[in-house]
Write a structure and sequence with these properties.
- This protein is an alpha/beta fold and 371 residues long.
- Helices cover 30% and strands 24% of the residues.
- The strands form 2 sheets. Strands 1, 10, 11, 12, 13, 14, 15, 16 and 17 form a 9-stranded mixed sheet that branches. Strands 2-9-8-7-6-5-4-3 form an 8-stranded parallel sheet.
- It is elongated and about 70 Å long.
- The two termini are 22 Å apart.
């Protein structure tokens, strides 16, 4: 954020230089409240994921709405959260490398820090660094419950790592973590319940095995925006890590039980640069300001006669029909990204909008903190 950014407060959203990232504060606030209200009626607490919005102010709003802490993905993100005064943080990823582990251990001296581990090597490195820093790092054993990314196998392999963690100096074994991420975008609710249930059953069964071995399992963490309701229906699941629900995006809009419950709060404002012919429009938001890995962005419902069909580095091309043909050079259009998390990471700040007016500038302090 800079002086020029601050100067736009009070302006109409259509006046800001484009491409610009906009967040509808009323809709985002409604999404935050809805998730908080839903989970208050379950056994699970909310520890929302920072990697979606990467904006400390939004994390504070989530905490005010009932979240017990914040999940993030890297040490860099955890440092941003701690510097913003957030004191209960889970890094839901493996932290590997001498320098990163050293930062992790030092950060644990001034915040309640937890981290996922899925190997004896990573656990040993965290233990050594924590002892050197005279800190205590909370540890969750990550269990591979079907996404086939990180995670130790469920059952006995996870139990063995939990046993190692429970007797390692400098760390405190707190429980298990699993992520049914391969299920979150299944559009049909019943099919999603079936597939996510298979994964969550593995996590719950592993928890039972750990507890039968006499090891306390205080935290069992799972769940994404597409599966929060499924995961929170398990009494054994204690924390939900959903993140995208705050902003939403086009990918989630078609997921039954999610799209419609949470509303599209994030858009990229773009300006018409060229009208080469009657049915084609060229806008200034390309791949450097809106990511296409989950599909092409599409206009807000106010432009039903426009369809984006191509992105290049600095341009988006759309086909027009009907009323949209009236668009002229200099007009602005709001596009909904297909993937909010990676689109947000392209900007330094987002404009917080209420009733069409810029109310605040939100620094995306976690942008680029991949280490």
């Amino acid at each position: 954020m800079n002086a020029a950014g601050i100067g736009w407060i009070g302006a109409d959203k259509t006046e800001v230089p484009t491409p610009a990232l906009l967040l509808d504060l009323d809709l985002a606030g409604r999404n935050i409240a809805r998730m908080g209200e839903y989970l208050r009626n379950t056994h699970a607490a909310l520890r929302p994921h920072f990697k979606t919005h990467k904006t400390p102010l939004l994390s504070h709003l989530q905490l005010r709405a009932g979240a017990i802490g914040i999940t993030c993905q890297t040490v860099g993100e955890a440092e941003v959260l701690a510097n913003a005064g957030i004191t209960d943080i889970l890094i839901s990823n493996q932290v590997v490398g001498v320098h990163k582990v050293r930062r992790l251990a030092r950060l644990a001296n001034w915040t309640d820090l937890k981290v996922a581990v899925d190997s004896a090597q990573t656990l040993a490195a965290v233990s050594r660094a924590a002892q050197a820093a005279q800190s205590v790092v909370g540890v969750l054993v990550e269990v591979n419950i079907g996404q086939n990314r990180c995670g130790v196998d469920p059952g006995t392999p996870a139990l063995r790592l939990a046993e190692d963690a429970s007797r390692s100096p400098g760390v405190e074994f707190l429980g298990l973590m699993g992520y049914e991420g391969h299920c979150v975008f299944i559009e049909q609710l019943e099919k999603r319940k079936l597939e996510a249930g298979k994964s969550l059953d593995l996590l719950v069964e592993t928890k039972s095995l750990v507890e039968k071995a006499g090891i306390e399992c205080r935290i069992t963490s799972a769940g994404g925006t597409g599966t929060f309701a499924i995961a929170s229906s398990y009494p054994q699941i204690t924390e939900i890590q959903a993140g995208s629900y705050v902003t939403m995006d086009m990918r989630y809009s078609g997921v039954e039980g999610v799209g419609g419950l949470f509303l599209q709060a994030l858009t990229v404002l773009t300006t018409v640069l060229s009208r080469p012919n009657r049915t084609r429009v060229v806008m200034d938001a390309g791949m450097k300001s809106i990511t296409p890995e989950f599909g092409l962005p599409q206009p807000q419902p106010g432009h039903p006669d426009m369809a984006v069909y191509k992105l290049s580095e600095e341009h988006s091309l759309a086909e027009l029909r009907g009323d949209a043909i009236a668009l002229a050079v200099g007009d602005v259009v709001e596009l909904i990204p297909s993937h909010g998390c990676t689109t947000i990471n392209l900007f330094d700040y987002m404009y917080g909008v209420r009733n069409g007016i810029i109310e605040c500038i939100l620094p995306i302090a976690g942008r680029g903190k991949s280490a």
